[in-house]
Every structure is written in C-alpha cells, then in structure tokens.
Amino acid sequence: MFRHTPLRYAVLAILAIAALMQAFTAGYFGLEILIEILILCLLVLALDLVAGFGGMVSLCHGALMGVGAYAFVALNVLADLDPWLAALGAVAITAAAAWIIGAICARSHGIYFIMATLAFGQMAYSYVFESPLFGGDDGMGGIDRFDLSAIGLDLNDSRSFALFCLAVLAAAYLFATAILRSGLGRSLAGVMHNEKRMKALGLNTWRIKADVFGLSGIIAGVAGVLAAQHIMFISPGLMNWTVSGEALVVVILGGLGTLVGPLVGAAAFVVMKHELGEVTTYWHLVVGVILIAVVMSRANGIFGWVEARWGDRIERRLTDATRSPAQKEVSTDA
Amino acid sequence: MTQDLSFWTLQTLNALQLSMLLFLLSIGLTVIFGLMHFVNLAHGALYALGAYIAASIAGTAGFWVAILAAPIGVALVGVVLYGGLIQRMRKSGPMAQVLVTFGLIFALLDLTRILWGDLALAIATPAALSGQVELLGVSYPAYRLFIILLGAAIFGALALVLARTQIGAMIRAGVDNDAMAACLGINVERLFFVVFCVGCALAGLAGAVAAPLLSVTPGMGLQILIPTLIVIVIGGLGSLKGAIAGSLIYGFVQTFGAVLAPQLASVLIYALLAAVLVIKPVGLFPAKG
Amino acid sequence: MLETRSLTKSFGAVHVTRSVSLKLERGERRVILGPNGAGKTTLFNLLVGELTPDGGSVHLAGEDVTALSVPRRARRGLSRSYQKNTLFDGLTVEENLALAAAVPTGHATRLWSDSLRQPEIRDTVAEVAEQVNLMPHLHAKVSEISYGVRRQLEVGVALATRPLVLLMDEPTSGVGPEMSKGFHDLLNNLPRDLTLLIIEHDMDLAFAVADTITVLNYGEVVFDGLPEEARGSKLLKDIYLGSWEDA
Are residues A111 and B104, on separate chains, in Cβ contact within 8 Å? Predict the structure, then answer.
C-alpha cells in the first residue's frame, strides 16, 4: 500500500526546488521544456495510479489526455465558453469516458486489458482524425489560456504558465495520494494483489477499478486541458497510442507504483529527448536501449532501484538524525 | 453508388488482399503468443525490416531473390533477438514483455533509419506480375492476386503442418499445455526457437510482399502493428483459425467500411474490437477454452 | 441459515455434485468429511457462487441466492476461507484484515475516508486478530510470516467481514498437530451464533468440533447426522478407511 518514505519526501522536495528554480531562472526554451515536463508528469501520475496501484496497464491514457484537450477546445473554441468552464466540462467528460472504459475493460486481464484499452484509445484517435468538426488531420487552434489577471498573473507569459502548471501538478499529486490513502485506494491495492479474494469478501471489484480509472481520468483530463493551452493548438497526434506507450515507458523508467518515480522519469525523459535530440536524430535508439536495459535488469525503474538499494538505509539514517538532537537535549539537561 | 457486381468483386478482392497480408503477419505473432505466452510488439518492426531487405536486394538481384532473402534475413535477426532478449524475458509478465519489445521498436526504428536513411524506398513489381488479370468480370492487378494466392497457400501449408506433421502436433500440445508437453519429452525450448524464427520469417515475407504496394518507410512497422494486434485479439490468441478469421474480419470491415461509410470506417474496426472483448474477452477462437 | 436443495454440478461427463441437499441451523457447526475428489471444495464453490450449479438452489437466511454473484452473496453474510492460501501477499496482516473488515461497513469503496484509520475497522481488526491469534504478527507482511500463521490469517480474513455463515476449506491443511490443536481452541473463541461449515481431514478434530457431520462421496451425501452416529457408521468406515486409520 502507498506510503511516503523519507526518501520519497526528499526526492519530492528536490524535484519541487528544481522546478521552481527552473521556472524563475530559465529562458523561453527552458520554460517550454519545464512545461512539457510538468504536463507529462500529470499524465504519468494518472497512469501510475491505475497501472502501478491497480495493475491496470492502460494504453489509452494518451488518448484520455487527448479527450481532455479536444473536449476543452470544443467547449472553449466551438461553444465559445469561458476557459474555466470549458476546462471543468472537459475534465468531467474525460473522467466519464475513463470511467466507462474502466468499467468495460475491468473484466479483462493481462494482455487483453492492454489491448482493450488500446482499442478504445485508437477509437478516439481515429474519430478525431476523420472528424471534420474537430479539424481532422489538421487539428485546431485559437485556444485561450486561463485568465488569472485577477491575481496578477498573465498566463500567456511562459514563466507564469509554468508556475501555474507546477501548482496544478502539486494539487494533482495530493489528489492522487488522497485517492491511494482512501478506502477506495486501499481496496484497489487489495484488488491488485488478489482480485478473487476481494470478490469473495463481497466487493464489486469492477466498480473499484472503474472508479479509480475515472479518477485517473480526471488527472489525465487536466493534463489534456493544460496541453491544449500550452501549445494553443491540438492535433490528433496527441491521441495516438504511441503517446500512451511513451507515458508507460516513462512510468516504467521512473518506477511503477511509486508515484514519485514516474515524476523523476518524466523529467529525465523530456530532458533526455531534448538533449539527445540536439546531438543525434536517433534518440529513439538510445531510449529504446535504456528501456530494454531497465526492464531486463528487473529493477523497478530508476527510482525503484534507488529505493530498493538505499531506501532502508536513508530511512534509518534520517530517523537516527531526527532522534539524536532530542537525545542530546536530554543529556545536557541531565 | 456503383453497386454493380464488379464493384463488389473488386472490393472483395481488395479485402482478401489486405486480409492475407495481415494473416502473414498475425500468424507468427499469434502462435508465438499461444506457445510462449510472449507478446512481441516488435513484430511490426520485423515486417519493416523485411521490406527494407527486399528493397535493397530487389534493385540488383531482382524481386524473386529479394522475396526469398527477406524472410531469411529477418529470421536471422529473429535468432539474435531470441538468444539475446526473448529467451530471458519468457518468464516475465506481459507488461515487461510489452515494454522490452516496445523498446525494441524504438531501437529497430532508428536502426533502419541509420542503415537505410529517412527517405522512402520503392520497389518495382516484378515484370511477370505487373499486368492486370481478368477475373470474374473485373480487371485486377496480377500482383495483388499473387498476394491473395500466396497468403492462401501459406495458410494451407500451415494448416497441413499443424494438423498432420509431428512438429505440428508438438506445437498444438505446447499451446495447449507447455508444462505437459515438456513432460511428454518434447524439447519445448527448441520448439519455441523454431516457431519464433518461422514467425519472424513470415513477418519478413509479409514486408517483402507488401513493399511493391506501399512505399518502404521506417514507420511502416508501427503502422501495421495495430491492425495486426487487432487481428489476433479479435481472432483469439494462439490459434491458426483465429488468425485467419481475425484477418478476414479486419480486411473486410476495413475495405468495405472505407468505401461504404468512409466517415466511420476507422472507428468501426476499433468498435468491433471493443465489442468482441466485451462479449468474448479472450477473442473468437482462442487456442485454449 | 444455509440450505441447499438438490444442488447438482458436472464437469463434462463427471458428476462432481449429485443432488446435494443440506440444511444448517443458525449457530450449527457442521463438518464435511469425504475422501479426496468427493466434491467438497466444489460444493463450497457452488455455495459462494464461484461456480454456477447445473441444477438446484442455494438459500441463505431463508432467501434464494442461487442467482446472486459472489460479492452479493458475501455481502449477505456468506464468507469463506480457501484450502490454498488466498491472501494479499504484499500487504501486512493488519492490512489484510482491514481490507476485509472495510467491505461490509462500506468504507472499502469510499473516497473521502481511509478505511485503515476508521475506529470501527480497527476494532474489528483487533477483535479478529485476537480470535485467530494474530496479535503478535499484525505488522508483519504476509511474505514474512510462517505457513501456519498464514493459515490463521486465511480464516481471519474470512472472519473479518463479520459473516453469518463461515465456510472453512480445510483450515488445518498442511499444518502440524499442535497447530491443529490450536485451531480447536480458535474455534472455541468464535461466537456461538456463527454458523460454521468446515471441510476437515483430521477426524479427531472433526469429531471434537462438529455438532453435525456430513459425509460426501463421489459428489453425493452418503451420511448426514450426529458425530456419535458417524463414529459407529460402517458406511463411513468403508469409504473413508484410509483417513480413518490415520486418525
């Protein structure tokens, strides 16, 4: 079951500080990369919630993010709604879509679950690809960012937008941990460990899976809204299954079922993509080889590996460190 | 609408041609899965590799040499993959396999780009098959007809091998229960190896055969992967019957969908897949009940 | 409390359950005996709904539950333990019990509260842990406790849903004689109004704990009565000879 270890807190703090420093010091290009990382973080957070804590390996989360983006654009641009209302609607639509997909796929397991989610994702992709309403292959533009002038922020400025995304990510992270620490999240752990027994105990396991899938859809929908606002343009490519595949790769490279690891993975992945992209056009080859190496090493990603190797030691040292000043105090008193 | 007989004949032939191409790809993938419980997402990349090998050779040695060399070349790559990766990943869960082969897709994609460049290659249809054939009142490209016949021939040959030969019986036993098959003295490891290589060779053959119809690009493997996966999931993993049924369903739905309801065609096939998974979560003709 | 009427099931040509009719009163403790392959576990699977019968019906607290799914029967108070440990392996003993305890209270599906921190669930966990002697192991992971303790947890998880009827599938299978004795004590700790149906191989234990005994052979009820009657039964001796002499 999910819990925060000192190591996890430490990594979260480092990530937060790094993101803040980047947000305040980086130039335009650095900010764009930061925003890209933050949005990918949201997506992999949503994916880790279902894959890492519910055993539901989804290949439709990229498409769910796309549903969020397209629904936002439909409501914002086509229906001319206020961006906030449009975002709310888009997140609700994405969550509903995710809940339905989760409910339908809940009966499938293993490779069939992966394929079923893939089918739903590709269905959405093909639909927008063919649909003249959503601009088809050409995509759509004319998207507004949120208006935060009331609190003195202009989100059309990259720095402000990056900070806004960071705040949203922090909220989404808290939301995800709240889910995992709720009765629903505990039951999800039970379903992942032994679905048969959970049924025998009287739990409608499909309902648990669908509910968490729907909640994960909320985060994916938020990612979609931010992605649409970030690029201010959307195209079907956003929904392609390779986006889901890459998100899964990031979750795995970071550390499945650790929540913190995928965030590390997302940062590493985006930075690697850009850095390698400058050196060689063949960065896919490098990513592919790293992915194969990580999976074959049987470590649970970068963070999982660190956790397995040093997690206990760090925890002990930290608990010792917090205890020793208190002990010293006692000894001086005496 | 041009709904006279020749229209239906033509579309049926097109559907069959697509089906047979998918069959060549899916049969290898599905039997590898049925036998080894291994999900090889890189199967599409092997198909692309087959197309590239054929395209490189056809220019100098001619089409017929190319179509023989491609399966052999891809099978050799299969040998390397089997020894290096597949064998070690066999006991891992489906997710680890999906990911390793996903990494393999990335790697093979760039390797083909490094070796052959980013530009699309073209390969001419062989002279003997470049004309049109009069068939059932329509004039149809001979090369496409050749694909249909080749697919049908390979289906027949595989059905015969599976039903009549000793290795076929061993494969059926292995798909049914590999632990039991091993107890019966079947060298399961060698059987896996042979089946994997044959599956790779068929993927290479499919690539070579498809090359004159399409342009040969690094992305062609990714494009064909999803249809192939749909075929084997609709058909049911592990069975020849499932592979051919799934291929035909995909081919016909896709082809007729595109001409009769172009707006819906691409969504239709995914909706069909979702429907199959809801009603029969393990596909129409799974190898195991 | 629990009743079956002409329950029938076959796998292909093999009749694993032949017209089994049983009736358990509230608080009754019945032991099912029978040789391997007599269809005891199949009967359990039919009772809880993991298998669908070909014919006949299952009644729980006076209501026909034959058409209900496994979770719905469980929520009506039918709980079972498995012959082969079916636990949440990566979790602690406490978490295992809490997962089960949270189902009937509704906390298991709630997003706004943590089932592990609810006082009523903690109480149930503590109470069940006491009943099945798991107190010293509460914070150990399932992977860290011995096989015998896992068998206790197997029963504990089934108990934590606060069932009306508890089905125990060979609770002492694979454990040593002392553990079997311990299990006898454990049964004495359980509330007297809990209806128990126990598959048991250990004859001494069976006679010690049973109010009534049912003997299955080839999927058929061949004896149904009091332990004293069973003890003298020639029929039982004949079909159960091997185990009889072991015991």
Answer: no
